[in-house]
Amino acid sequence: MARDPSLRRSRLATSVFRLSYGLLAAPVLAALAVANARLAAGGDPLSAGAAERRDDLVPRLAFLEDELDQGAGERMQRLFPEGYVFMHALYGLAWANVAIAHGAAEPALRERGVAEARWAAERIDSDAGRASFDPSLDPPLGMFFTSWSSVVRAGVVLASSAGGVRLDDAAALAHACEAIEAALASRATPFPPSYPDRAWPADAFPGMVVLRACDERLEARHGATRAWWLRAVRARLDPETGLVPHSCSAASGAPGVQPRGGSSALMLRFWPELDAPLAAEQYALFRAAFVDTRLGLPAVLEYRRGVAGRGDVDSGPLLLGVSLPGSAVAIGAALRAGDSPLARALGVESEAFGLSLDVAGKKRQLLGLMPIGDAFVTWSWSATPWFGEAVALPDDVAGKPGGARWPLVVASLALAAALAWPLTLEVQVRARAGASHR
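Above: the chain's sequence. Below: its structure in token form.
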């Protein structure tokens, strides 16, 4: 008996559907399986071996390198006010961190890390990098551009071997320090403006790390300015939370907008390089104000507990009040503060819900659709001390768990069931179609 052509077409459509749907669902299921395996393994990111950390970071950097070569900086600039600078700065800083952490044992990796960080610094200090910033400000082009372009230069020098710092790298770093020192010379505010009449404290933190790098590696003398800056910041902390405010008066540095999760996490990446005891104090306050759970999973809130707010250009879209950029940056802040449980929990979530995949030696998240997110996560995982001081967290903070295991397992099972449901419907439709032709 000849087969019914309509049934044959139905079976062909079924095969095409299964293949297409499987290609879409498989990466999600694979990422969930990997995340649950990592969670069950109970690995400590702070005690991970050097080879393990290197083998995770190099594929992430390989993906970012390809994206930057294909214009990711320009694409992100069209979406974010500082997209171009951030893409290159985070890439350069991550490579500098890899060179600092692994360069002594692997000279070739050090050489590559220094070269890539230098390339990133040169791309930032270009017409494309400077285009969005005002040259009439003090410092020229504003504190955001000055700090982030300069901290990559600092990374180049610190990643170089003790006797291998190139003269042009040293000169570029010294020039950057002079610009930062000049901008703070009036002592009117520790937070110079990034745009006309607009200042954000987080923009000054990388610049202060630059001053310390000059003192440590170039034997400069910025100690008095750094000491004054720390005193001035202490005098301008938010009175309610004790944290550095999100934005401030461009004239005096007086607190403006109260602290927020994303910018607080960003500052905490630099606090340990400036003052380890104060870093511990600020981290404990950040943990109390902004780290919470959503659906049983740890997350970083953009607005502190009990305060409602909307997403904006600084935070991006908020999901249940959670700052996705803040959560990504907090991985590095937690690593640098020695808070392994939180770093591990946030990292596992990033791997799972960011659909982290390594394809042909290039690791990406969200299928590589938003490389600025990959850049922040890569910079976070590359966190390594620049000046050696350890952050001694209070016992009640150091002992806090990063989150329970069961919420991710339950969320994974629910998502897997949701992904399987369309296949169930398709099988039912096919069965009915076959029955009608018997």
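The mean pLDDT is 87.
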